[in-house]
Amino acid sequence: MRLPSILRDTEGVEGYCTCGAKLLPDSQFCHRCGRPLRDDIGVAEAPEPEPGEIPVEAAPAEQPILIQVAPATPAEINFHNGVAVRVGFLAAAIVQLLMTLSAAVAGPIMMPIVLCGGGYYAVFLYRRRTGAGLTVANGARMGWITGVFTFVITTVFFTLGMAALAGSDQLMKAYKESAAGLGLPPDAASQLQKVMNDPATFGLSIVFTLILQFFLLTVLCSLGGALCAKFGQNRKA
Fold first, then answer.
1. Within this chain, do residues 116 and 212 fall inside the same structural domain, yes or no?
2. Do 223 and 127 share a structural domain?
3. What does the pLDDT read at residue 10?
4. Are 30 and 104 within one domain?
5. Does one domain contain both 14 and 109?
6. What is the mean pLDDT of residues 229-236?
7. What domain count does the chain have?
């Protein structure tokens, strides 16, 4: 393709574009065709800092912020824990029922096993309902709560039974039968009669019996809860 004569005449002339347009002074592009007049046009050059000016470096790319979510803290085992209270009361009711049945069938020899089993069952039931594992200490606390409820239920039944038999000779008769079943000496009933005739001694004996019973119930239930937390923690409910 041959260029028009005007373009051929102006192609090699300084101050003219190849398209034939006359270039303006200090122009970088042709105002007619847009042709760049310098080879370095289009390359962005960073401006040189003026004397005394501190160059500003490009800000680094923002790093993603990683938020670590702390694991949920297991609920503390105490009387403010609603699940622990309900589980402990249910286990205590079952323990009281089993103790009553075992006393009628096998005597008091089964009571330690029933109490340990109650603490064990309380920890098992708590873990099944919450899905949380328990340490040995928390298992013992769960068993202790069960023992406290067992003591309260036992004391209520004992008080009601004493009140029902206090006005008749059935109390002494029931004690004689119980003493005979436990293998106590025959004069145990007469000693109890002497204690009941002295209100101060009788009151102290009741307090001592309650303290001993509280200690026995809570310790055995706590032992069962600790055993379940120690050896039953890897079992899936």
1. yes
2. yes
3. 44
4. no
5. no
6. 68
7. 2
Give the 3-state DSSP-derived string for the chain, with helices as H, strands as E and coil as C: CCCCHHHHHHCCCCCECCCCCECCCCCCECCCCCCECCCCCCCCCCCCCCCCCCCCCCCCCCCCCCCCCCCCCCCCCCCCCHHHHHHHHHHHHHHHHHHHHHHHHCHHHHHHHHHHHHHHHHHHHHHHHHCCCCCHHHHHHHHHHHHHHHHHHHHHHHHHHHHHHCCCCHHHHHHHHHHHHHCCCCCHHHHHHHHHHCHHHHHHHHHHHHHHHHHHHHHHHHHHHHHHHHHCCCCCC
Is 50 domain-assigned? Answer: no
Q: Give the range of the structural domain holding residue 32, as residue numbers without chain letter.
A: 1-36
pLDDT tens digits, 203-217: 787 888 889 999 999
Average pLDDT rounded to a whole number, residues 123-141: 91
Interval 46-83: pLDDT, tens: 566 666 656 556 556 666 676 665 555 667 899 999 99
Residues 214 and 142 both lie in one domain: yes
Q: Taking all residues of the chain, what is their mean pLDDT, rounded to a whole number?
A: 76
108 belongs to a structural domain: yes
- 222 and 125 in one domain? yes
Residue 24, both tokens: 């303006």
Assess whether pLDDT exceeds 90 at residue 30: no
Residue type, 148: V
